[in-house]
Amino acid sequence: MTKRSVPRYPEDDGGAGCCGVFCWCCCILLLIVAAIAGAVAYAFFVYKPKAPSYSVSNMSVSQFDFSSSDLTLYTKLVATVRAENPNEMIGINYGDGSRTVVSYRGTPLCSGHLPTFYQSFKNVTVMEISMEGRHGFGSGLQSALEESEKEGNVPLDVFVSVPVSLRFGSLDIREVKVNVHCALVVDSISPKKKPTIKSATYQANIQF
């Protein structure tokens, strides 16, 4: 009897093909990541970005009326805010949706908002921010405020939240929100006397 040989078929190399495609995809992804990292590093090297600074330089109170009938306080004041852009090649766009709040011991007194504007390179902009509000103000807070007035040390918290975008030349990058907290101590918050800022500390963070 003649011995019949078993036919052989070529092995399926589909697995190797998939591995090759996967390796190419990984290489392309790495190249894209490297290109982005290089662009960011180049931008930092060329533009040398610096953080802007903010300060409250002045404050005036036009109304500060307490109603004993419903324990509410109506406040109207103007805060002078100084914004400095120290960058030589980066502009700052201040967008819509900003908010400013002044509070005493965690209780809001008044609120307002920043104007929308573009701040150019190496620029200092001084803004007068009008704020007003009517809020509940218990007798305990009123007594504490009167005591602070007598001592000449009234602690106030100023909170600023504003959406901004940076302009590198003609390119605007994505908008982020800048939050600034200013802890002030003034000698008075009475409309009869112009407040003097005795001390101020600032904290800021960026919300992506």
TrEMBL record:
GO cellular component: plasma membrane
GO biological-process terms attached to the record: defense response to other organism
Pfam families per UniProt: LEA_2
Record field: transmembrane: 21-47
Record's keyword annotation contains Nucleotidyltransferase: no
Annotated source species: Zizania palustris
Membrane topology: Single-pass membrane protein
Keyword hit for Transmembrane helix: yes
Protein name: Late embryogenesis abundant protein LEA-2 subgroup domain-containing protein
Cellular localization per UniProt: Membrane
Keywords, ordered alphabetically: Membrane, Transmembrane, Transmembrane helix
Positions of the Late embryogenesis abundant protein LEA-2 subgroup domain: 80-182
Chief place where the protein resides: membrane
Upper taxonomic lineage: Eukaryota, Viridiplantae, Streptophyta, Embryophyta, Tracheophyta
